[in-house]
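ESCALATION

Customer reports they have been waiting on this structure for their group meeting. Please prioritize. Original submission:
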Amino acid sequence: MSAAIGAAALASAGLLAKRGRPFRSYSMFIYFAIMEFLQLAQYSVAGQCDSRINQALTWAAYIHVAFQPLVVNFYFLWGQRNPHPEVGSFVMKLCLAAAVLMLMRTPVLPLALLGDWLHTYFPDIPTSDTYGKHCHYLEAFCGERACSFKGGAWGHISWSIPLAPTTYFLPSSFIHFFMFFVPTLTAGDNVKRLLMIATVFIGPLACMAIAAQDMSTYVFEWATIWCFFAAVQSFWAILVELYFYKKRFIAADAEEMAQVGKWAKHSRVNAAAAAAAAGMAAAGGKQGAPTVTAAVCVTASSRKLD
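Update from on-call: job pushed to the front of the queue and completed.
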């Protein structure tokens, strides 16, 4: 199943690229297809916890999870459709910071090497012997060693990862939830908000309910089931883009972007309008400044209204 979903996701990305859609429109397909192929590889070494391949694939999966909010917000908030492009840029930076904080809870970053020394002066920095041994209540993935194994309600792949305890400097998995959902819920349009609300129920909540059938593997399994669903959920966003925004997006969203005030210089729609106006002036034409509709036509003709 992982192979089929991964292949379908890549095929969809290829189709969108062939149709001239911008990278943002199909980046989620590519990213979550990578996760499906990662899980497919993990099944071949599942339960072999002493295997370096197993451990490497487990760490690769966690790194993938850490950067998921970046990819999701890149789709929903980056680019032309956002009336305030600087918001998308700021959210991207926050997502990168969140990913680094998630990775700092693993023993693969320098913090683990310096932790024992730093702990003497700053007790909130964990020591190397605390990784995986002080997991807080139902902490996703947290276990004593890095390992991918099968188990739980569905026999789905599960991940155990030795995470440092949460402190003032190191956040829990809540940071993933916050950066995954909150930016779009607060800065996206109503359609994007509805998509995100639906994803909360069909994503983490549904996967938690499935994994809860076996609480012995619950913390290791529910997030991996969500990764399995995520590639399918990406289709929803693309369908909305191709159909819901097909007519409304070019006119209404562009008109909104033309009214962004002091951020107008970031809008390619306004840039197109300015270029058209300059061209008319240079030609000695008597036409007035181009309207939003004219700007949209100029931009849409270049297939970059995204």
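Sent to customer with the following note: DSSP finds eleven helices and two strands in the chain.
Escalation resolved.
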